[in-house]
Amino acid sequence: MSADRDEDSGSNESSNSSHSGKSSPLRSPLARDCNRVYRLVLTGGPCGGKTTGMVRVANFFEEHGWKVFSVPESATILLGGGVKFSELNEKQSYEFQKDLLRTLVQIENVFFNQAAMITDKNVLVICDRGAMDPSAYIDREGWSKMLGELEWDETFLRDNRYDQIVHMVTCADGAENFYTLSNNNTRKEGVDDAKRVDWMTRHAWVGHPSVYIIDNSECAKFDDKIRKLLQVVCDRAGVKTYERLAKNSRKRKWLLASYKSEDFPKFEQFQVKHDYLMSSEDGIQMRIRARGQKDKMTYTITSRNTSNAEETLETRMKINKREYEGYLNLIDHSRATIHKERRCFAWGNHFYSMDLLVSPLPPSCPPEGLLFLETYTTFPKGSDEPVLPPFLSVIREITDEKQYSLYELSKIHNG
Fold first, then answer.
1. Residues 158-199: pLDDT tens digits?
2. Where is this region: Disordered (predicted)?
3. Looking at residue 34, what is its pLDDT?
4. DSSP labels for 78-105?
5. What is the rounded distance in angstroms from the CA atom of residue 154 to the CA atom of residue 131?
6. Dihedral through CA 322, CA 314, CA 165, CA 45, nearest 10?
7. Which residues, 6 or more positions from 89, have their beta carbon under 8 angstroms from its beta carbon?
8. What is the pTM of this model?
9. Measured between alpha carbons, how far is 353 from 376 in angstroms, rounded to an integer?
């Protein structure tokens, strides 16, 4: 469901980054040969897929050659420092909301300014909630008073600041089973409260020229919802996806013998390190990953729930280096670390990832390593389509062959 989507206003206008919103000039239209800065807000109700969505969008755009900045949620930063709403009186709560808004805008401005200085790549700035979200937690009179005291207006905070707003509807509205599974001991009141917060947050962005609401009605699986998120962002940002995000596409995988470097098209290459963590629950796989280029690394933790026969539910969350190093103390020593080099490229009407497992290799790998090719396509397993790039020497298709999954390859066999 899309709101009023003006094709000119959403991607070519933005306020400047000063604090004064009284006369914020519009950003000039970008010339065709200029690098773009695209400002995206991900918002929504609790347990809507926003956290996993941020990681998936960031990875997708990085693999397509973009630089990506992820702006953290300001409320999480402040509340994580010890502020408790339950301890605040009415005046203190109002001042906290004002400080929160001021902090949010300033943190975003830092990232926006850094993005504007990058000249060799397009830049995606993903904001974990945006400047209008605080308005959902204060009455209209208080919000107007706050904007007056800060000398800002809603044109500055909403209409011209961001290129696109995507609202991820809470699972409590249309996918209640997933909300319950993700929140142990959740009562009925919790579901109702999630719907109420979702509704208030949704209405905070009414008036922005490019708002897209992703609900649960057309998403049979959680991955459908994430795929829909990727599609609406790519469509708006003008990034070609071909079959990668088609609703009936699926991942296919091939085992390669070799490749010809001299014939490769333009590509992005990443160094990746996977470690599996100990899990106390059957059917739950926990994995941490370090991924980067030229020693500039990003870190994620992934939880994969395979206990549901109908759907494997995978959630991802970005973590910082300190958190990543802490999780290294919880690695499963019955599994080896997986090191690989990932090369992402486009050929024909498909995007591909080529993974080379490199030293130190897990015991199950041959000494020369393993080389895989993956893509998402609507052509079924075993089909002669898509025609694979001629600079790759393909041994055979291994889609769904369990022994070639990273989880299986990581096993250390004793005795």
1. 888 999 999 999 988 887 777 754 443 333 447 888 888 899
2. 1-29
3. 52
4. HHHTT--GGG--HHHHHHHHHHHHHHHH
5. 9
6. -90
7. none
8. 0.77
9. 10
